[in-house]
Amino acid sequence: MTQAHPRTILHVDLDAFFAAVEQRDRPELRGKPVIVGGGGPHDRGVVSTASYEARAFGVHSAMPLRTAGALCPRGIFLPVDGAKYQAVSRQVMAVLRRFTPLVEPISIDEAFLDVTGSRILFGDGEQIGRQIKDEIRSAVDLTISVGVATTKLVAKIASDLRKPDGLVVVEPGTEAAFLAPLEIGRLWGVGAKLAEALRDYGVRTIGDLAGLPEDLLVRRFGKHGAALGERARGLDADPVGGRDPAKSIGHEHTFDVDTSDPDVIERTLLGMSEGVAGRLRDSGVKASTITVKIRDTTFRTITRQRTLPDPTDLTEPIFRTALDLARPEVRGVRIRLLGVTASGLGEREQLALFGLEDPRRRRAVEAADEVRHRFGERAITRARLVGSRLPAPFEHDPMSPLEARGIETDDGGRADGEPDDRDTQDDTTFAEDGLDVT
Fold it and tell me: Which residue, 137, 171, 205, sits at the end of a domain?
């Protein structure tokens, strides 16, 4: 990027997406506090998103449902409808691609766009932002907030400032001045723990951080210290679409009631293995390593991992491996949470290679995938999973911009030295700031 020809980057973010879709489709919910993420305030799990009416009571994403119910007794609790939200998201992303091919979705409800090369056709960043807002309102009857800047970092912060239905433009050369008065927690990479450490140096705002000497930041915060200083000045050369591919695909489930029932545990592992395998196939990759995560009633959490003899994207080998890993750990123990993750991802091999795969099984799996894609995840399921009340396998939100660049984040999407291991990642709910894919 040069000052003569600065980039024009947009960050677009659908406002209270899941709740807004429900209010759009059910007019009787408009103007009411809608909380998406479970069947009721007594369910175990977390809030996926809340309407702005519910946010007025202090309800927010990743909050336990029971806490949300206490804060907002008249809240209307709705389960996640993953298939519907995915369909709307695809419509929105199609609108964005009318303006530029450089679109980087970073979750189901937000994306970056580089419209530098689109200015001749559509005008400057502000004009493009207004056109996108109008077209999305016309296409899906939802509002978005847009930030316009020369970097992804500043565009993201700008879009957050005037929600809902906002448009904030940061002119080239004003990035540092724009950021300076904002509280430090708005900056990528600054979570609660880091903000507390920075207060020892008198840092309350992003401008305070920008004023600290680089050598001090490096001595105190290590390799990320220099990057913190650059971000505080609005510097971010990260290109749109520059994320690395996901390194793993995982599925987790927190039980409504802790269980030691072997059949319940096995069916849960099967359902999660089915979801993981489907997402592998949709991504065109196979996995060579399977990991199970087990959390018992005392909150003790363990993981077990095994490398497969042959990479796979099929349910059966993933399930068999997960079951073998989990059985010794769950025997006689009440289980709170289970997770299955596939990693060691590689491009799908030629299916007929060495004749190792049964072509009939592959055809059957692809036919079932086609039915799910056309009619929803619950259109077809295994007989053993009927009535299991497991969540439909729903593709989680992609990683945050920080995770894509190798910066650890806490459960709010901001970096901290230690990952947070509280019980907030529940696959019966999907936070719009979700961080599942790593």
Answer: 171
- Which residue is associated with the tokens 């399977």? 290
Question: Token digits for 231?
Answer: 């971000």
- The range of the structural domain enclosing residue 127 comes to 1-171
pTM for this prediction: 0.64
Residues 17 and 76 in one domain: yes
Domain count, the chain: 3
pLDDT digits (tens, 9 = 90+) for 202-238: 999 999 999 988 888 888 887 778 888 889 999 988 8
- 214 in catalytic set: no
Amino acid identity for residue 174 in this structure = T
pLDDT exceeds 70 at position 124: yes
Q: What's the token pair of residue 394?
A: 């729903």
Check whether residue 51 and residue 151 sit in a common domain: yes
Q: Choose among 388, 428, 81: nearest CA to 252.
A: 428
Domain stops at, among 207, 232, 257: 232
Q: Which among 22, 53, 104, 110 is annotated as catalytic? A: 110
The DSSP code sequence of 5-51 is: S---EEEEEETTHHHHHHHHH-GGGTTS-EEESSSSTTSSSB-SEE-
Q: Tokens 């592992």 sit at which residue?
A: 269
CATH number for the domain spanning 161: value is: 3.30.70.270
